[in-house]
Write a structure and sequence with these properties.
The complex is a heterodimer of chains A (424) and B (324). Chain A is α+β, with helices and mostly antiparallel strands and 424 residues long. Chain A has helices at residues 2-24, 26-60, 80-89, 205-226, 237-243, 245-252, 257-272, 278-289, 309-322, 384-398, 405-416; strands at residues 96-99, 112-122, 127-139, 143-154, 166-176, 182-193, 201-203, 361-368, 374-381. In chain A, strands 1-2-3-4-5-6-7 form a seven-stranded antiparallel β-sheet. Chain B has a 16-stranded antiparallel β-sheet that branches. In chain B, helix 1 runs parallel beside helix 3 (26-46).
Chain lengths: 424, 324
């Protein structure tokens, strides 16, 4: 309080000094002020003329493909009343559009989500929210994220008049840009406020796993603090923690099989190998170069009102159908091949002897899935039993054998001390 | 309310937009102004960062000597003492901006198409070029030379219910070497910028935008001086780019150093006063590796640091972030 008064006094003294200073020189400056005013009026007139010329020049520039990319923001959008009705009825809204506010964009270019919705319990505000499920998050003229969305509630101020729930979105799917590029991957927008524009950033599997661990710890601490029963959030954090977030989110994504396999394989490579997340990056690059497609993006054959999106997705599907499949024995950290050794075959190629000092043994583990796809994944371990668990983990996740995820995680935990097979 | 005022004062760019001051009470304004002036004084008292690298330290000493002589006074750049260069306005523009007049207009039209509400242009009639030392012929300076010139840029931001026009007058001095109309090797560039802000009046004509809060007007009118040193190695390849920006009223005391490690990699740091504020590594000119934003404080309030990973210019959420 004292600091407040002192600061206010300082401000008032400064303001008074400025006023007094201005008054003392008022007469002497009159002529100069008039000249300066005339000069500025001339500058302003010139500026108006030049800006009009610039406007004409801008209008003369041929429109690029970016100008119409998912623009303008379509309407009508779901209103707060619509969302409230859905929550009361206990039925998520059918496919629709949710427009978010971007303070620096005109309304016609505000970002929007179009797709299906679901309920997610927000632990910190103590109620369900309507969140995104499958669809597109479009930033007109710039980019779009198409895929399956997962919402993670985050600490939110609730002792205020208007509660704006905070959370993070994870998208597993594709990033589309006006130049026609489609990049398959995992994208995250953290610490976002309900209704405000989302800014997605590409994320590595390790980051997602770390994000999830932090999130689970915060959730657990909050629950303990509230001394409440575990909430029915519809998202079991303990289970996700055991499985590893990247794999869990990838496995639940509505992505074409090839894309999901590639992401899952990259996730496993990054977690089990000693790399720096390069496998996912390589897979993403490969996917985008190869069209990054597969069959149509959504299994339900969803149709969109977003301007031009149906055409974009159709083009991607066509491109994917015409793209050659990768073949041959891949180097480590490369996309999976579709020819290789029979299911479960182990083509071990030790790169380092596990001699004294506990140095790591690295090898390329090759196997085939029930689907017929073949993989070669680099694994690195010091302990043979942990190595076996790693290989099982790699096979289960790469083949997307969802029913075996839990047992693979348990095996890793027993053999390596970590549910993701990271040796402790 | 006061917090909002402080937040505004934390960034001079936001201040020029002048959207929110009307919402601040006079007491809040006084406190915010007081905090901003105290912040500026804090950095002013710190002086400049000093370096153990003799080359960088020599640049700091050179800047300190020049700033003591020229400071923020555009007239001291020597425009009035120069000998007019016998060049067209377009050639003078090329010398001063490093690109042709047409290229500049095209680039601004391209930006305007991408950024909603933005229009940018330049007034070719405001371009002047004089020579202080060395030869200056039809193609501009030739050989080792010192030139001084003026340019005027015009920017408009418009949106729902507002339109701001900013006229930016630049007086600049370039000391370098030219060959065949092109600048080459090391050079020094000093630019002193003065802005004036306008808005449409009732009849649609532009009129000077005077804010109710005097401190905002004072900041808008305060000149900014930027001193850049582009240092090349013996083969002419960039070695260091060092910049000093000073605007005491706005509290700008930034120093930036980019070391061009080789043809591919770079390392850049930015200080405010002597406080290291940002660090980033680059690869082929794009950020590559961790960008570190160091913690600081404003008016007694700690502002936490953060680090962001970039790979080939794209931000990525990652735990490991290689810079090679």
């Amino acid at each position: 309080m004292v600091g407040f008064r002192v600061a206010a006094l300082r401000g008032c003294i400064l303001a008074a000094a400025v006023v007094l200073g201005a008054a003392s020189g008022a007469h002497a400056d009159e002529t100069n002020d008039k000249n300066a005013g005339d000069k500025k009026a001339g500058m302003a007139a010139d500026a108006m003329r030049l800006l009009e010329q610039a406007d004409r020049r801008k209008a003369g520039v041929p429109a690029s493909s970016a100008a119409g990319f998912l623009a303008p923001t379509p309407g009508p959008a779901l209103t707060d009343a619509d969302l409230g009705r859905a929550l009361r009825a206990g039925i998520p809204p059918a496919q629709g559009i949710d427009v978010r506010n971007d303070a620096v964009a005109p309304p016609a270019l505000d970002p929007y989500f179009e797709g299906t919705f679901k309920f997610t319990h927000h632990l910190y505000v103590g109620r369900d929210l309507v969140t995104y499920d499958k669809g597109v998050y479009a930033v007109p003229r710039k980019e779009a994220y198409v895929g399956t969305f997962t919402y993670f509630a985050q600490p939110t101020m609730t002792d205020v008049a208007f509660v704006y729930p905070k959370g993070s979105f994870v998208v597993v799917g594709k990033k589309l840009t006006p130049d026609g590029t489609a990049e398959t991957g995992i994208f995250i927008a953290e610490d976002v406020t309900a209704g405000i524009a989302l800014y997605f950033v590409k994320a590595t599997p390790e980051y997602l796993a770390d994000f999830e661990r932090r999130h689970a710890r915060a959730t657990e601490a909050y629950r303990r603090q509230q001394a409440a029963e575990a909430a029915d959030s519809g998202f079991d954090f303990g289970q996700v923690l055991a499985l590893g977030l990247g794999a869990a989110v990838i496995s639940s994504a509505d992505l074409p099989g090839v894309d999901k396999m590639q992401l899952g394989q990259a996730f496993v490579s990054d977690v089990l190998g000693e790399g720096e997340g390069g496998a996912l990056m390589n897979t993403l690059i490969s996917a985008s170069q190869g069209g990054g497609g597969g069959d149509s993006l959504f299994s339900g054959g969803m149709s969109f009102e977003a301007p031009g999106l149906d055409g974009l997705l159709g083009g991607l599907a066509q491109q994917a159908l015409g793209a050659p499949q990768p073949s041959g024995a891949p180097p480590s950290n490369s996309p999976p091949s579709h020819s290789g050794p029979p299911a479960g075959a182990l083509a071990a190629a030790p790169a380092a002897a596990a001699a004294s000092g506990g140095s790591a043994l690295s090898e390329a583990y090759s196997f085939s899935c029930p689907s017929g796809a073949s993989y070669s994944i680099p694994v690195s371990y010091r302990n043979a039993s942990c190595g076996a668990a790693m290989k099982n983990f790699a096979r289960v996740y790469s083949c997307n054998l969802i029913g075996d995820f839990a047992s693979a995680g348990q095996q890793c935990k027993q053999a390596c001390g970590s549910a993701q097979c990271a040796e402790q | 309310m006061n917090t909002r005022c402080r937040a505004l004062l934390a960034g001079a760019a936001l201040l020029t937009v002048a959207l929110a001051p009307a919402a601040c009470t006079s007491m809040g304004q006084g406190m915010a102004e007081s905090a901003a002036r105290a912040n500026a004084a804090r950095y002013a008292a710190q002086g400049n960062p000093q370096f153990s690298d003799p080359a960088l330290q020599a640049i700091v000493k050179d800047f300190e000597a020049r700033y003591a002589e020229i400071g923020l006074d555009a007239e001291k750049l020597g425009m009035a003492q120069g000998k007019p260069c016998p060049v067209t306005k377009e050639t003078a523009f090329q010398v001063l901006k490093g690109m042709s007049y047409e290229q500049y207009l095209d680039s601004q039209a391209e930006v305007a198409r991408k950024v909603p509400g933005y229009t940018g242009t330049t007034d070719i009639n405001a371009v002047q070029l004089v020579s202080l030392a060395g030869a200056c012929g039809d193609n501009g300076p030739e050989g080792r030379a010192v030139v001084v010139g003026t340019t005027r840029d015009i920017i408009r931001h418009s949106g729902e219910g507002y339109s701001n026009v900013i006229i930016i007058d630049n007086v600049q001095r370039i000391e370098g070497t030219w060959a065949g109309g092109q600048r080459s090797g090391s050079f020094t560039w000093i630019v002193i910028t003065q802005t004036a802000q306008f808005k449409p009046g009732e009849n649609g004509a532009l009129e000077v935008d005077i804010n109710d809060w005097d401190y905002i007007n004072e900041m808008r009118e305060a000149p900014t001086a930027s001193y850049f040193y582009f240092v090349a190695d013996d083969s002419g390849k960039p070695k260091y780019t060092v910049g000093f920006a000073r605007n005491p009223i706005a509290g700008t005391y930034s120093t930036s150093v980019e070391e061009h490690i080789d043809g591919t990699y770079g390392y850049s740091r930015t200080w405010q006063g002597t406080e290291l504020r940002y660090e980033a590594r680059t690869k082929n000119g794009a950020m590559h590796g961790w960008q570190i934003i160091h913690p600081t404080e404003y008016d007694g309030t700690p502002i936490p640091g953060q680090r962001n990973c970039y790979q080939n210019g794209e931000q990525i959420k990652a735990l490991e972030c290689p810079s090679t």
